[in-house]
Design a protein that fits this description.
208 residues; mainly beta; 14 strands; 4-stranded antiparallel sheet
Length: 208
């Protein structure tokens, strides 16, 4: 409640944010956030994110495929602000297996990291080393986002659910197993107003 961030567990690649790669068997405060108030945190496979009260996004840990959003190939042992989003007020962040999403206060969605299954939503399979706006949502206001392993989900202000990325096992909800390189509305929810969504490694659970 005081806005402090605590981390524990496996510390490889600096994912705990304590400036080293030591494992932490007990929760330890991330001192890099001293003087900052964190409102939200999200953990990926080998990296971590936090959003501070001023709307800034911070990332640390393993840098593969640009997943940290800093435009370089350096691991980050301490939290580092993502400067590409410095002029946006971010209201939510979501970390998938190897990619991330940020939802801005104006309803824009930005993505970065590994894009090999279309999970970034830019219409291609390219990795993005810095946050890039998902243009497919132009003219729509996104109100919630979630990221899983190889896929992403969003809710727009009209209560529609959208998904994109890896379609194996029907995990995108479009009635097939096709990958989607751009956000696609989940038509099975037509007539429903979706208010929350969660993307996990192997399944998704939108809540009408």
């Amino acid at each position: 409640s005081d806005g402090a961030v605590w981390s524990w567990g496996f510390g490889g690649s600096g994912k705990l944010g304590h400036g080293d790669q030591q494992h932490q068997p007990l929760p330890k405060k991330v001192e890099a956030f001293a003087g900052q108030r964190a409102d939200e945190g999200s953990a990926g496979g080998e990296d971590s994110r936090a959003r501070t009260a001023d709307g800034a996004v911070w990332s640390w840990g393993w840098r593969a495929s640009g997943r940290l959003g800093h435009g370089d190939t350096q691991d980050q042992l301490l939290p580092k602000k993502i400067e590409a989003l410095a002029w946006k007020r971010v209201v939510a962040v979501a970390a998938g297996g190897f990619h991330s999403l940020a939802l801005a206060a104006n309803g824009e969605v930005w993505s970065w990291g590994f894009g090999g299954r279309g999970e970034l939503g830019h219409g291609d399979l390219q990795a993005q080393w810095q946050p890039k706006k998902i243009e497919a949502f132009a003219g729509r206001r996104v109100v919630a986002v979630s990221a899983g392993y190889g896929l992403s989900i969003a809710i727009t202000a009209d209560g529609a659910a959208w998904s994109w990325g890896m379609g194996a096992s029907g995990k995108l909800g479009h009635g097939d197993t096709q990958d989607q390189l751009l956000p696609k509305r989940i038509e099975a929810f037509a007539g429903q107003r979706v208010v929350a969504v969660s993307a996990e490694d192997n399944s998704n659970a939108p809540t009408p």
